[in-house]
Amino acid sequence: MRLTISAGIRTALSVGTMACTGLVAIAGAGETQILGYPTNYQATNEAIANEGIIVPTVPIVNFEQPTRSGQPKRVPSLPMEGVSQVNNADLALPSSAVTPSAVALPNASDWLVPAPLPVPRVSPIAVPAPPPEPAIPNPAILDSALEANCQQAPAGGVYVCSPVADPASQPPPTTSADFPRPRALSFDFAPGFPVPTVLPGSARASIVQTPTKSTGLAGILRLAHPLSDTSNLALVLEGGEHIFAFDAGFTQLNATHQGLGVNFAAQTSWSPAFRGGDREVDLAGGDTPWVQRLGGGIETYFPVSAKTNAAFGVGYQQVSVRSDAFGSGAVARDEVGNRVTVDADGIDDLMTLNFALVRDNLHQVQFPREGSMLRVGADQGFTIGRESVTFTRLNARYTQYVPVEFFGLRPGPKTLIFDVQAGTILGEVPPYEGFNLGGISSVRGWDGGGISTGTSFVQGAVEYRFPLFDSTLFERAFPIRGALFTEFASDLGTADEVIGQPAKIREKPGEGFGFGLGLQTETAWGLGRLEFALTNEGDASVIVTIGDRF
Description:
Helix content is 3%, strand content 42%. It is mainly β. 35% of the residues are buried.
């Protein structure tokens, strides 16, 4: 709590005491203290000698009382009603009781007294010489439980005092129970996982955007139950034409990005590795391969610097390939005899050690228009079984948002986005762990994995976003902006290094680019996108989705 008191040059003195009837101004015997103006005595002497009175509208008291939100609540200044002329001799206070400063009290009730203070009526006063130094407040005139620490503001004229309360009068420490509890249950249409995260899960974002699932028309629903201000239980459900998945987990994360995450996840979906290309290859009997994953993990979150956060975790997944979404029999080879798993029984036990780091220099978390983001990841994986393999995956991604002044249909922010991604895998790579290129999160216009599945890759994109017009829906304005984009990806000739060579036997090109245009708007669930894209092979696609490409 802070109390600031200032006064005009006609005031003889002010001691911070206020009753319901007003303020009392007190002058010390044999000397004059001018509140807030300890060096301007000549003008003060002339003013007091002229009239010998106290101006009833000063001093002014500005009382700032903190509120629950932490912002000060200002109490209006009070006039000096009922104050008459004051003579030094009639009050007979020692000079040590006279202060040029003001004392802050902890709350407004400390200024109330049981009855109005008597105000003596005296004759005009003579003006003595000013003191050499301003006096320090005498604790005797304060409440015994307070100590004053007063300093003059740099501009002069105002003293600010910070009281120290008696420890015995302090309230007990606050606990989490003192804060309002969040809602018991909430839902959303976005995954809401920490960034970064390294746990296995269908809806968790990876370091690089190479598709790991072919979903078709699909949606995500997140249910969350808060346990405290920093922890929650969450269930993420994903369902669509070609995917069924869930991710149940516990997350504890504080404001400094320190915490812990645990999850259990399951997914069954089409895999981009086994889709696309000029040649269609399925399982025996013509069934489309479904990849099932069941497992979970534990991870820890920690800050590296003010703008850099990291995660490290251990994960386990049982991976199998089946002939339908919930088939009971695992399959190890496709219809032409190529391996689709590592182990001969069609079921792989995959263990991974995962690390991810994100450096965020964006000017805002959601819908950024300026700044950059760097993502780096490293994984060590191995399968457990008769035919075990070991691999090391390294990948990185850099995204830059540049404000520009190019064309647009109306005033508003215009942004040019550059995105570069690259990665490599050393060792023997299972077909479901390779880098899949092509799709709405990779190269738009292509099917997911339609360009290739390799052990190394490079991928780049450039997109220009510009304002178009505003649209109103349900009495809410939605700014509509346009987008022009072009993208490219290459497997760097590594398609034949993946176990089973899924891209090579399906005659995928290994590299390709796409370009197009679209409409975008910002929603409560993310960036809404309606886009039309073409490929260098002449194929076209229409994209309707929620979620930023970058």
